[in-house]
Amino acid sequence: MRTFEYVRTSEVADALAASERAGAAYLAGGTTQVDLMKDGVLAPDRLVDITGLPLRGVLGTGHSLRVGALTTMEDLAADPLVTHRLPVVREALLLGASVQLRNMATIGGNLLQRTRCRYFRDPAVSACNKRAPGSGCAAVTGPARMHAILGVSERCIALHASDLAVALVALDAVVHLESARGKRTVPLAEFYLEAGTTPSSETVLAHGELITEVEIPLLPETTRSGYLKVRDRVSYEFALVSVAAALEIEDGVVSKARIGLGGVGSKPWRALAAEEVLRDAPATGTSFREAAAAAVTGAWTVPGTAFKVELAKRALVRQLQTVSEMSQ
Predict the structure, then answer these.
(1) Over the stretch 192-250, which tens digit does the pLDDT of each residue have?
(2) Is residue 171 within 8 Å of residue 89, measured between CB atoms?
(3) Is there a contact between 253 and 263 (Cβ–Cβ < 8 Å)?
(4) What is the DSSP string of 138-199?
(5) What is the Cα–Cα distance from 266 to 261, expressed in whole angstroms?
(6) pLDDT tens readout for residues 300-312
(7) CATH of 224-326, one of 3.30.390.50, 3.20.110.10, 1.20.190.20, 3.40.50.720
């Protein structure tokens, strides 16, 4: 690890000012940042420790939940309103990391975690357009089982790893951003960029800009939701495929569906085509299978990822069946 300057602040304005320098980066829970520095992928010359900023807490506002960016994953999962109104979020949090990590990792940091692509994290030997634009994508011709099939191309098939982001994208969550130049809000679905077009740029976040808060719309009381994570082992592991689903069903007909897919996209994937298939359709296996087929239309695969097309369809059908049974 290279030497760097360490700056600790207790005010948002001071943190924003300290991060303006070109080589500066923020440090919160550090569960991703420190690993990438050890691997030699990131080498900031200044770390701005933001753990002392007043950006913690969960507040219900009637129609939404406002979550400070420094709130830990464990604290959000334990919130009673999340348990009651947003089970899909709670399940994504609990399945997303071990207890130890959930007590360290922040919500803002989780949304910004970098890909777990082995080629991205091995700068000594691997070509990676995400880490070194123009160098190629070693994953396209190498082992690529833990890679994406949606929002990708021959330039990059890196996978977005966050479970929480999949659920939040499906719920139309919004991130509040702040920098020395001002404040803005961005829908989470527009916050992420597809790796297939901009491998080296993963979000619209500008240098020095900070996530201060995440706003999550509360689901209606009658909505049933849940998160399914398919992985190689039950203990802490990243998803091969995951599904965040929320359904409103009236008299056996789906009036509204929200679906997010993980383990398959270069960004948290909102399955809008699947939602459209389900709108005003009967909550039956036939409708669910049609929605699943629509969800993976346009998938771009290599030999190592081809299995994910069928796995994603089956996982989506299973989760829709589970959620719809809960609503009856």
Answers:
(1) 999 877 899 999 999 999 999 999 999 999 999 999 999 998 877 899 999 999 999 99
(2) yes
(3) no
(4) GGGTS--TT--SBS-BTTB------HHHHHHHHTT-EEEEEETTEEEEEEHHHHB--TTT-T
(5) 11
(6) 999 999 999 999 9
(7) 3.30.390.50
